[in-house]
Amino acid sequence: MGKNKLPTVSVVILGWKKFERLKTAIKSVLNQTFQDFEIIVAAEDDDKLVPQIQEICKSFNDDRIIVIRREKQGISAGRTCGLRHARGKYIAYLDEDDEFLPNKLEKHVKILEKLDNDVVLTYAQHWGWDRKNNYKIITPLEKDAKSGHLYDYMIHRYFEKSILFQIWDAVIKKKYVEDMEFDPDLAAGEDDFLLLLVKKGKCIFIPEVLHIQNLDAEFRPSAAPVNSMPSAKDSGDDIIFNKQAEIIYKKHYNYITKKGIKYNRTLGISKSFLMKGTRIIRMGSLKEGRRHILYSIKIKPSLYAISIYVLSFPGKNFFIKALKARQKILGGMN
After folding, report:
1. pTM for the model
2. Which of 1, 87, 8, 86 lies closest to 42, judged by CA?
3. Distance CA 211, CA 216 (A)
4. CB 40 within 8 A of CB 66
5. Distance between CA atoms of 191 and 162, rounded to whole angstroms?
6. Out of 53, 62, 80, 331, which could bridge 181 as a Cys pair, Cβ 3.0 to 4.6 Å?
7. Burial (CB count within 10 angstroms: exposed 0-12, middle 13-18, buried 19+), residue 242
């Protein structure tokens, strides 16, 4: 790509301390069937960290890879920083411990180039893959994923089912996000960002797996211990679990009340702890995983959560076999 030619896609990767994972993530972009892109690695501002990330990126000998320093203000601010430096017509996000499948960008760009001007993004499915235990699930798990003007659909999914697609499932038209930012008051504000974005136009669903979320990546935030997670706060008929949910709720309050959407995140938070617990058990810590699952049951008891808890006692191998059997029957985990 010539120095003066703008790339079609800007791929934004947040760089931290997972150096080997970062190499794999960058390789997955460089191996794309669509090659008109730039890679922006937004490295957390640290005098020891940044030089190591720069060295990794330099080793690829590809001038499409750009390293920028981002302030230590969390994931949301980091993603906004990457967005501000992006020169491409389209924006794609990739976590440093995940991967694009080879035709990811080609599939998205081909569709985006053909569609109406009011399409803001395309989004697809991804594998959640734990290679260590040969365990794989496909998401989004909902079989009713849709295309079109999806704000009403997404707002219902988020507040009633606690389900959205991920920011890295999407490729976004930059012109629709130039005036936006990921809320710095939210540790990881991608749900907030997506809900505000889908109000601007159409979204198109691609029913293919184009991304790998590495569930066996070390030190994922989702594997944090229970005592570091937000605690529940009773607020009458509804329950506001944390600052993030409360901030997002207030931003969409008028629409939620107009549509009579029930704001109750109990089930969603319960599912979140259940999923974390199963992941931690797969990583080998049965005691810590059970603590998460018990917390899930405490928040919202269910026969499924109780059965998962019981299945953990014969040991990790039996537990994983049980999860695989369920996956085979249902086609995923929900």
Report:
1. 0.84
2. 86
3. 15
4. yes
5. 10
6. 80
7. middle
The string of pLDDT tens digits covering residues 223-270 is 333 443 444 443 333 333 456 777 888 889 899 889 888 776 677 778
**313 CB contacts (<8 Å, ≥6 apart)?**
none
Helices then strands, counting H and E runs in the chain, come out as: 12, 12
- Six-digit token string for 159: 């507040």
In degrees, to the nearest 5, what angle opens at C-alpha 98 toward C-alphas 223 and 89? 130
**Tokens at 263, concatenated:** 């704001």
Q: Is the peptide bond before 140 cis (omega within 30 degrees of 0)?
A: yes
**pLDDT tens digits, residue range 78-126?**
899 999 999 999 999 999 989 999 999 999 999 999 987 899 999 999 9
The class level of CATH for 9-214 reads alpha beta
Give dist(CA 290, CA 280) in Å, integer. 9
Structure tokens at 99: 């991967």
Distances (CA, A) of 294 to 125, 320, 334: 30, 18, 17
Q: Which two tokens stand for residue 237?
A: 């008929």
Please give the Cα distance from 21 to 126 (Å, whole number): 18
* Residues with Cβ within 8 Å of residue 193, at least 6 apart in sequence: 79, 167, 180, 182, 183
